[in-house]
Specification:
Distance between the termini: 43 Å
Radius of gyration: 24 Å
Oligomer: single chain
Structural class: alpha/beta
Bound molecules: manganese (II) ion
Strand content: 15-25%
CATH superfamily of the largest domain: inorganic pyrophosphatase (n-terminal core)
Strand order of the largest sheet: 3-2-1-4-5-6
Mean pLDDT: 94
Number of domains: 2
Low-confidence stretches: none
CATH topology of the largest domain: inorganic pyrophosphatase (n-terminal core)
Number of strands: 12
């Protein structure tokens, strides 16, 4: 049975490929993340020289350092999508997403949709070639299966891209991914470049973030014996606070860390730890009366508007956070556990 379904899909894929024509200009649209980038690169490789042109266009900005590293080291030819580009193309494909996922896709007809997100009944999909498989941990797994079935051997860079796509979407099989993903992953490791993969994985920070790390190191103060707090002041995004907090989790002997900063007109506090102290409850206890806080034992977050603080506290948010984390008593567990 499974074999029949598989071969029916393969027949459809072959039919679609056979129907491609030399004068066509294709655009593969993505919301760029590792799985989407890898899947688009694989689809472009499969389409090969059957058509005039295959452009990969992203509708979002790429800011994460590992994604920037992936594009650079794997030489993924992705361009920023602009609505006026639409007339340059005769055909559109979409991987790792569905047309209703973004308003940027609204006015476009897609001839190909390949995705692993579930379909929704409100948004029926229509495309010349359609392959939606929610049971797959990554769209990269679906594309890897195409390569294997079509007996197309991917090069070093494409294999590494697909590997990183599966790795990211399944959190290296810690958070999803099944037998199919594992099989694809194993097959890809034979063709991939481990040293490039390692460079991508290790690209965790951007140069522009280093001054923030420097501020965090200078501020670092002890909290309740086993923890540390660092306030980094104004930052452009809470992601930077998360990156700094995650960095500190690599320090052996540091049980937990609190990294705070100001984003726009609000204070954000990121908690990370080894689970020995319930940080979700701590985050709640420290900030529930000025904002909100919560999370798991090893991973929590609190936010508050600066307008909720006194003028003196607003003038020294770092000290406000520090005093709270240092002195607040936990509330009853029932108040936060849901
Ligand atoms: Mn995906």
């Amino acid at each position: 049975m499974a074999l029949n379904i598989q071969s029916k899909r393969l027949t459809q894929l072959r039919q679609w490929l056979a129907g491609l024509e030399k004068e066509q200009h294709w655009c593969i649209m993505i919301t760029a993340d590792p799985d989407a980038l890898a899947s688009a690169l694989a689809l472009k490789f499969i389409m090969g020289r059957r058509v005039q042109q295959v452009t990969i266009a992203r509708t979002n900005a790429v800011t994460r350092p590992d994604n920037l590293a992936m594009i650079r080291y794997l030489r993924i030819p992705v361009v920023e999508w602009k609505p006026e580009m639409q007339e340059e193309f005769s055909h559109f494909a979409m991987v790792d997403s569905q047309p209703h996922h973004s308003p940027a896709y609204a006015d476009i007809h897609f001839s190909v949709i390949i995705d692993h997100h579930p379909c929704s009944a409100e948004h029926p999909l229509e495309a010349g070639f359609l392959d939606i498989r929610p049971q797959m941990g990554a769209t990269s797994t679906i594309l890897t299966r195409y390569l294997r079935a079509l007996k197309k051997r991917p090069g070093r860079l494409l294999s590494t891209a697909l590997l990183y796509g599966i790795r990211t979407d399944t959190a290296t099989f810690e958070r999803g991914g099944g037998e199919d993903d594992l099989q694809a992953y194993q097959w890809l490791t034979r063709h991939a470049d481990n040293s490039i993969l390692r460079r991508i994985i290790r690209s965790e920070y951007l140069l522009g973030w280093l001054p923030l790390f420097s501020r965090a190191f200078r501020y670092l103060r002890e909290c309740r014996g086993k923890g540390m707090h660092a306030h980094v002041g104004k930052v452009s995004s809470a992601d930077l606070l998360v990156a700094i907090a995650d960095f500190f989790t690599r320090v052996h002997g540091l049980k937990w860390v609190v990294v705070s900063g100001v984003v726009g007109d609000g204070g954000i506090v990121i908690f990370r730890g080894d689970g020995s102290r319930h940080l979700g409850r701590l985050a709640d206890a420290c900030f529930y009366d000025v904002g909100s806080g919560g999370g798991h034992s090893a991973l929590a977050r609190a936010e508050f508007p600066l307008s909720a603080l006194s003028a003196a506290d607003r003038g020294d948010v770092g000290n406000f956070v520090h005093t709270r984390v240092q002195t607040r008593k936990l509330r009853a567990a029932t108040a936060v556990d849901i």
